[in-house]
Design brief:
The chain is mainly β and 298 residues long. It has one helix at 262-267, and strands at residues 2-3, 5-8, 15-21, 26-31, 36-41, 46-51, 58-63, 66-71, 74-79, 84-89, 98-105, 111-117, 125-130, 136-143, 146-151, 157-162, 167-174, 179-188, 195-201, 207-212, 216-221, 226-232, 238-244, 250-255, 274-278. The longest helix has 6 residues, at 262-267. The chain binds beta-D-glucopyranose (BGC) and calcium ion.
Amino acid sequence: MREANLFYQMEAELGEGPVFHAETNTLLWTDILKKQLHFYSLDDNEVKTIQTDRHIGAFSFVDEQTLLVAAENGFSFFDIRQESFRFIADPESELPGNRFNDGKCDAKGRFWAGTMEFAPSSPNGNLYRLDGNQQITKAASTIIISNGLAWNQDNTKMYHVDSGRNTIYEYKFELESGAIQDRKPLYTFEESDGTPDGIAIDSNDCLYIAMWGGSKVIYFNPATCEIMDEISIPAPHVTSVTFGGRDFRTLFITTARDGLSSEELHQFPLSGSVFSVDIPVAGLPLYPYLPEERNVSV
Ligand code: BGC
Ligand code: CA
């Protein structure tokens, strides 16, 4: 098993949702429970942290200054320089026990994000699609913990993790309309592997899967359901993965302190830090959110 390197030592409660912004050579991630956004500039090795007022589960870039975020109060734009939110819509205003968790844009710039209960016990989570015209579609329901999302290179398949079921699902995906159908459980992980969490797909259509409770990232071929490699992380609660660096040959990995006992935190003091590992097959940049009316300022 390969080992990841420590990239940035910190004590994130629930480090999540890493995004690499190539134009500014910056890695961003959220700490959902501390309501913080972190910006790590790889040019000068400096971190900037913004304290927000909400639990940001996931975000995508819109333009260099603007993020689209999903939090417990729905979707908003976030102006990075002004540190201010502009509300879009909340599809779950009737479900105050839920919050948004993982999310990502598809190749047409539609933002997908799913929900879970703050203290997950029932399948009350849903998966939503926010189109460029700000219309929201509920794409799936009865999810326990909505987590990682990815699409294959020819955009015929979408992968979606329900951590509450230890399972990664595969859908048929129609790029033009954004419709998903024919959900099938692709793979259910052994409990000893941990729980699948955030995912990222490389240019060979293979998935890196963060394993919460597994102290590792699994490299998985969804065409054969074969586990091809494992990367060990010195932190049990591995939350998410994203590609970045030069040529997108670095995998960045976020972790959490949340859910660990004081004994475990003592044993794994790097919990909450960000890790990185060089990968043999290049990853791909994430898609930004694409507002339909380009002349409407966000
Ligand atoms: C969620 C955590 C959850 C974990 C394990 C993460 O994506 O944010 O709250 O405990 O997945 O499945
Ligand atoms: Ca996650």
